């Protein structure tokens, strides 16, 4: 065999051995595997395929409903949310009885109860309107309780305090009306009223009448 033929044979054997060794070597097989496993469209992050952020589970999951009238979230009314009701009765029925009654709510509900528990809901709301208007007037105390317990204003007040009330149906309604009023969730038919009296009396007031509801007459 000539020298050139021996060289060619040696080269052929060398390449064959290299191929066999390469195929049996894990590192080489992994490199081949990497070259074959080209990422598909599904494995490419969303931001690489569209100008949209990738939603994480926390963002993609919608939040559950909250109680609109809860004092922590209370209440739709106290969260700044706008709640629309078909009627005043619907607004009152939607109010829950809180486990703990705050001072202003207790004073307002007490005034509604003692002054108008037998009146239509509009009449009860009008009593609440008088109290709220007084707190904003600059002529009366600035808090609900201070207005309600002010000396000589409401005859049911005893020793500067609102008497205790049994948890009956009429009181629950008074609390609900008070919540509606405090949240300004329904317009009172006695808008602007700051005084009222029972129809059975005729005080010589030189005031403008704004409404007559049930057994009460309301004045500005």
Q: What would you say this structure looks like, in words?
A:
With 220 residues, this protein is mainly alpha-helical. It folds into 2 domains: 55 residues, no CATH class; 134 residues, Cell wall hydrolase SleB, domain 1 (Arc Repressor Mutant, subunit A, Orthogonal Bundle), CATH 1.10.10. It has 10 helices and 3 strands; from the N terminus they run H-H-H-H-H-H-H-H-H-H-E-E-E. The chain has a 3-stranded antiparallel beta sheet with strand order 1-3-2, covered by helices on one side. A hairpin with a 2-residue loop joins strand 2 and strand 3. Helix 7 crosses helix 8 and helix 8 packs across helix 10. It is globular. About 31% of the residues have low confidence.
Compact overview of the structure:
With 220 residues, this protein is mostly helical. The protein has helices at 3-23, 26-36, 46-49, 57-60, 75-78, 88-93, 103-116, 121-137, 144-148, 169-182; strands at 195-198, 209-213, 216-219.
Question: What is the number of strand segments?
Answer: 3
Percent helix, as a range, is 40-55%
Looking at the overall shape, the CATH architecture of the largest domain is Orthogonal Bundle
Overall structural class, as computed from helix and strand content, comes to: mainly alpha
The share of residues in extended strands comes to 5-15%
Q: Which runs of at least 5 residues are low in confidence (pLDDT < 50)?
A: 7-74
Report the order of strands and helices. Answer: HHHHHHHHHHEEE
Indicate the CATH topology of the largest domain: Arc Repressor Mutant, subunit A
Shape: globular
Could you say how many structural domains there are in total?
2
The separation of the N and C termini measures 129 Å
CATH class membership of the largest domain: Mainly Alpha
**Biggest sheet details:** 3 strands, antiparallel
Strand order of the largest sheet: 1-3-2
Overall pLDDT metric:
75
CATH-defined superfamily of the largest domain: Cell wall hydrolase SleB, domain 1
Total number of helices: 10
> Cα-atom Rg, whole angstroms?
40 Å
